[in-house]
Write a structure and sequence with these properties.
Largest sheet: 8 strands, parallel, barrel
CATH topology of the largest domain: TIM Barrel
Strand order of the largest sheet: 4-5-6-7-8-9-10-11
Order of helices and strands: EEEHHHHEHEHEHEHEHEHHEHEHEEHEE
Number of strands: 15
Structural class: alpha/beta
Low-confidence stretches: none
Bound molecules: magnesium ion
CATH superfamily of the largest domain: Enolase-like C-terminal domain
Strand content: 15-25%
Distance between the termini: 51 Å
Radius of gyration: 20 Å
CATH architecture of the largest domain: Alpha-Beta Barrel
């Protein structure tokens, strides 16, 4: 089995009516898939969530030529090769995301070749993986309560909401969602990196009083010392990591004692291999891992294989904001029952893309992205939030 083709495909979707969040009004979504094909007719799938105009040249001009002719099951060596060739400009950000997207596709191929699902290759003994609903953005308390009830009715037992609405509005929002989901479901909050240390401490008290399960990203990822200081007397577990890359980046976060829960994302931080390495490091430090995902169902599934297999795997994130790349991209939709996502026993990632959906949303020119606010990536200054 030898790799004979590598392809990157960017998908773009535009909302009829966007939604408000900490970064302004989200008008659409973007994600990039990779397909790695072999000479015996197999195709491995991966996902990368970064600027498409950066991912494409890295994948097509630099990494693809390295992979062609190689055995895809030789993942460790190929990962190191891809990392070494991008190190000069990479290590964090788009280059690591590109390496990771391909790494995930290699795991898919290795599983297919060995007839085993990835969660088994990683040493796991269960296909079940806890999953949480990620939604509840900037809305009125009444709207948030209605939405939270709908998420529970859909099968979730954990929901995540976004704050940074201002102290009074944060309080009303948290209390509305806590009341709506009742005491038996978990409430997670995301600070969207928009607090200073004083307001983060005040919020921590409100979160403790509402029995919040984790307190995510009050500060930007660069402010590791701020996390360390807040964690000393914060009674709610602190979570961060969606903006961290590579084992080295996570080692810094973990060594500093910045968080209780680590949040790598295979579609950002270096693929299934690096997410697994982060799980091992976190376990040695006595920390739990809850992967981030915000782009597509391939990313959710890649992360879920790791979390299902890891002893310290806590839960995976599933975007519930109405994202077609979550809901329509796979031939078998993601189903959550009583808070659990169940992975397939099929070899590899155990998924297939809905090719009609890929064709419908394919962006022909990844270097010419129409202006818009794509949640984490903004093109055109008119779409930037007032900062
Ligand atoms: Mg987050």
């Amino acid at each position: 089995m030898k790799i004979d083709r590598v392809e990157a495909v960017t998908l773009r979707f535009e909302y009829e009516r966007g939604f408000k969040y900490a970064g302004g009004v989200c008008t659409g979504r973007l994600t990039t898939l990779v397909r790695v094909s072999t000479d015996d007719g197999r195709v491995g799938i991966g996902s990368g969530y970064s600027h498409p105009g950066l991912l494409h040249p890295i994948i097509e001009h630099q990494l693809s030529p390295l992979l062609i002719g190689e055995n895809p099951a030789d993942i460790k060596r190929l990962w190191q090769k891809m990392y070494a060739v991008t190190r000069w400009y990479g290590r964090k950000g788009a280059a690591m995301t590109a390496v990771g997207a391909l790494d995930t596709a290699l795991w898919d191929l290795r599983g297919q070749a060995e007839g085993q699902p990835v969660w088994k290759l990683l040493g796991g003994d269960t296909p079940h993986c806890p999953a949480y609903a990620s939604a509840l953005l900037w809305k009125s308390p009444e709207e948030l309560a209605d939405e939270a009830r709908a998420l529970i009715a859909r099968g979730f037992r954990r929901v995540k909401m976004r704050l940074a609405l201002g102290a009074d509005a944060d309080g009303a929002a948290v209390e509305a969602v806590r009341t709506a989901i009742g005491p038996d479901c978990d409430l997670l909050v995301d600070g969207s990196m928009r607090y200073d240390e004083q307001s983060a401490r005040q919020l921590a008290e409100l979160l403790r009083d509402n029995d919040v399960f984790w307190y995510e990203e009050p500060f930007p990822p660069e402010n590791i010392d701020g996390y360390v200081r807040l964690r000393r007397d914060c009674e709610v577990p602190l979570a961060a990591g969606e903006n961290e890359f590579g084992a080295q980046g996570f080692r810094e976060l973990i060594r500093a004692g910045a968080v209780d829960i680590v949040q790598p994302d295979a579609s950002r931080c270096g693929g299934i291999s690096e997410t697994w390495n982060v799980c091992k490091m976190a376990r040695e430090a006595g920390l739990r891992v809850a992967t981030h995902s915000w782009c597509d169902a391939v990313a959710v599934i890649a992360n879920a294989h790791v979390i299902a297999a890891a002893e310290n795997g806590l839960t995976v994130e599933i975007d519930q904001t109405g994202n077609p790349f979550i809901e329509d991209l796979l031939t078998e939709p993601l189903v959550v029952l009583d808070g659990m996502l169940t992975l397939s026993d099929a070899p590899g990632l155990g998924i297939a893309l809905n090719e009609d959906v890929v064709d419908r949303y394919r962006l022909d020119d990844p270097y010419n992205i129409p202006d818009g606010n794509y949640s984490d990536m903004v093109f055109g200054r008119q779409f930037l939030a007032d900062l």
